[in-house]
Request: fold
Amino acid sequence: MTNRPDLSIIIVCYNTRDLLRACLESLLSAEAHAFAENAPPSQAHATPTVEIIVVDNASSDGSSSMVAECFPQVKLIANPDNRGFGAACNQGLQRAQGRYALILNADIRAEADALQRLVAFMDAHPDAAACGGQLRYPDGRIQPSCARELTLWWVFCEQSMLAKLFPRTRLFGGYWRTYWDFSSTIETEQVMGACMMLRRPFPLFDESYFLYCEDTDLCYRIRQLGGKIYYVHNAVFVHHLGASGEPQRAAMVIYYNRGKERYFRKFHGAWQARVCRWLNKLGALLRVGIGVSGILLTLGRNPRARQYARTFWQVLTASK
Reply:
């Protein structure tokens, strides 16, 4: 027990070698580990320690060999096939020895004191079962990373594009709190799985989700058991959103839609899952129409419009 690290950082990667390298360098930097030297005297662990676990989901870009060669202090789990995000996280959680576990995307870079602040927050709030930091895009803009409970209304707002058209209103932008400035620490219904700290005993992800919404599911179960979840505004991380999914946008949207449908089926019944599926289809149809309109208005000369229409046609016609 005395040798247990204070924090286990679990990173799942899939073809993000260069971003993974930057992520690990940020975690191992003196600034990211400042809390190891400057823990408040009131904390029981005067010298917090960190372990890093990388779970590689059969990357083809040399991610595993890069970790093994350049970061020998990192514990590496190299899967022979892509097990999905939740299953890979569970591998890391089952191996983790820390008092807390931080699920962190491979395309995230920790800013100075970010880890220290999350650990300090969990130490100071024993009622917190989980928390997440503030995510920022590489250009400095804040990325919404704490959400309300997922409902069919929020799916409608997303698929009808009302959330994008009116992000500053509570009525349409309420799910991701885009009406807010993310400038304070609050209790929330869920935090993004890209940066989620968990308290021991660690809850496991539902592995029936291959990608997307496994974090929504986990946060819902945490709250059902009486746990509280917090967004910690002053723990800042830079997130290259969707880095491993950019070349396969249609597949990512399909995974996301299926994840939402699975969530509703699991917690709210088959009829809500069916409604969610139809909302997803209508949203894809709307986007196909937008893409086709762009093609017609530019007489087919806009490749982005063609790609947009093609992507959402794939989403629309995807089988269950």
About this structure: Confidence is low (pLDDT under 50) at residues 41-47.
